[in-house]
Amino acid sequence: MMQQPNPAMAYRAARAGMPVRAQEADVFRRVTGALRAARSGGAESALRRARALSDNRRLWLAVEGVLVDPTNGLPAPLRASIISVGRTVLKEMEGEQPDLDFLIEVNENIAAGLAGAA
């Protein structure tokens, strides 16, 4: 019996062949897409918003963790700048009503930079 292809496995396999920066840009785009969807409202918007903000927080905490690693190859001033942006994003998300447009714009700029479009 022939097994049906698993779309998630196919996506992961295709992504594995992408350069690391392209994969990182893709993560930012996916999180940004969730933030956009959370902005749209609707019956499940509170849940969508909470999930999108949680994913964005985890992303930026992971970015900061990578950037503070002393073995990171990026120049120290660039790492410091990105950490500063990340902390601004995290601070914005601590508010009662985070500015989703601001968060989306920051993520889009980072994704563009990673993709080489900045």
Automatic annotation (TrEMBL):
Domain of life, source organism: Bacteria
UniProt KW keywords: Cell projection, Cilium, Flagellum
InterPro entries the UniProt entry points to: FlaF
One GO term (biological process): bacterial-type flagellum organization
Name of the protein described by the UniProt record: Flagellar FlaF family protein
Source species: Muricoccus nepalensis
Lineage per the UniProt record: Bacteria, Pseudomonadati, Pseudomonadota, Alphaproteobacteria, Acetobacterales
